[in-house]
Design goal:
The complex is a heterodimer of chains A (179) and B (143). Chain A is mostly helical and 179 residues long. Chain A has a domain at 1-77: NADH-ubiquinone/plastoquinone oxidoreductase chain 6, subunit NuoJ (Four Helix Bundle (Hemerythrin (Met), subunit A), Up-down Bundle), CATH 1.20.120.1200. Chain A is built from nine helices and no strands. Chain A has helices spanning 2-19, 23-43, 47-72, 84-101, 113-116, 119-130, 135-143, 145-166, 172-178. In chain A, α2 packs antiparallel against α3, α6 packs across α7 (135-143) and α7 packs across α8 (145-166). Chain A is globular, with a radius of gyration of 22 Å. Chain B has helices spanning 5-27, 36-54, 56-62, 65-88, 103-142. Chain B is built from five helices and no strands. By secondary structure, chain B is an all-alpha fold. The chains are: A mainly alpha (179), B mainly alpha (143). The interface between A and B is large, with 45 and 54 residues.
Chain lengths: 179, 143
């Protein structure tokens, strides 16, 4: 029940976000949206994901977006034309997703393929095999450690990419001499 | 915001607890919710809070960019190194069972170091992104 209240609040947040012209308020609403999302995940018993969403989505990305706003100014530029195409694309994509969701198994259906494949083995064997009570950690860091290595590499690559793009040139005077 | 007394006092009170909480999330991730990703972000958030309150220069004295850049790579290398350690001890890449005499203990050890690697890289990347964005803004302001 609480999930529907939260989801409705999230929908209201998104509509308000789309109508906002003030980017500062938009960033704050993004943060609110992330906190609501974290609460939904918490209500769904996905505590680890909720924690990540609260820390990354609502915390650090808000700070980074505010830092970006400091560079570009706080008001949205007036669009030259009324952009209809993005609206059509996003409504169509949303419609396809909603249509696809009809084919998903019901929430927490024990017969869902997700719960009959490897999940039972993880739940039964993980505490014995790894000695780690939190199965999420066991799956993330042990059974799927190649995936997590890949994720860490993605984070590293993203950081290295931003450094390569934004690094200030140290040798300003030297460069002037060379020219 | 450097002149705001309330903010400065609250920051000094809160930041140690934020860092300890990050360590708790990092090392208690085996037993409760949490792990490297979350802990890294929380640790970076504590330093970001410090930077917002006391200024970028003070934060960069506390955690120099040079170190942040080293840590960025060190975390990935630590993670990959756990895999190599598995190879060296006669197992497969990222095989934790061979890391200790008792297989479950080996798993525990592997997960510990792998999560530490994730935490270090995530914290360093988040902090580095913040440093770069803020430093760029200061450049634009000077010009």
């Amino acid at each position: 029940m609480i999930i529907y209240v939260l989801l409705t609040t999230m929908a209201v947040t998104v509509v308000a976000l789309a109508r906002l012209q003030n980017l500062f308020a938009a960033v704050v609403l993004f943060s609110v949206y992330s906190f609501l999302m974290a609460t939904v995940l918490f209500a769904l018993d996905a505590v680890d994901v909720a924690m990540t969403e609260a820390a990354v989505g609502a915390g650090v990305s808000t700070v980074l977006l505010l830092g970006a706003l400091y560079l570009v100014g706080g008001m949205e530029a007036k669009p030259l034309a009324r952009p209809l195409l993005p609206l059509v694309v996003s409504v169509a994509a949303g419609g396809v997703l909603a249509y696809g969701m009809q084919g998903l198994p019901a929430f927490s259906d024990p017969q869902a393929p997700m719960h009959t494949h490897v999940a039972p083995r993880y739940l039964e064997q993980a505490p014995k095999e790894t000695g780690v009570p939190n199965v999420v950690t066991a799956v993330l860091a042990s059974y799927r450690s190649f995936d997590t290595l890949g994720e860490t590499l993605v984070v590293f690559t993203a950081g290295a990419g931003v450094i390569a793009l934004l690094r200030r040139r140290r040798k300003r005077k030297g460069a002037g001499d060379a020219r | 915001m450097r002149d705001d007394l309330v903010l400065r006092v609250v920051a000094k009170l809160l930041i140690p607890f934020m860092l300890v909480f990050a360590l708790y999330v990092q090392f208690h991730g085996d037993y409760g919710p949490g792990g490297g990703f979350q802990a890294g972000v929380i640790a970076a958030a504590a330093i970001v809070f410090y930077a917002i309150t006391f200024g970028l220069a003070a934060a960069q004295r506390l955690v120099p960019e040079r170190i942040v850049e080293r840590l960025l790579a060190a975390g990935v290398l630590l993670y990959a190194g756990v895999g190599v350690a598995g190879l060296a001890l006669g197992g497969n890449y990222l095989d934790y069972f061979v890391l200790a005499a008792d297989p479950a203990h080996g798993q525990h050890r592997g997960i510990f170091w792998v999560e530490a690697g994730v935490g270090i890289t995530v914290a360093a990347v988040m902090l580095k992104l913040f440093y770069m964005f803020v430093a760029r803004g200061r450049d634009a302001g000077d010009a």
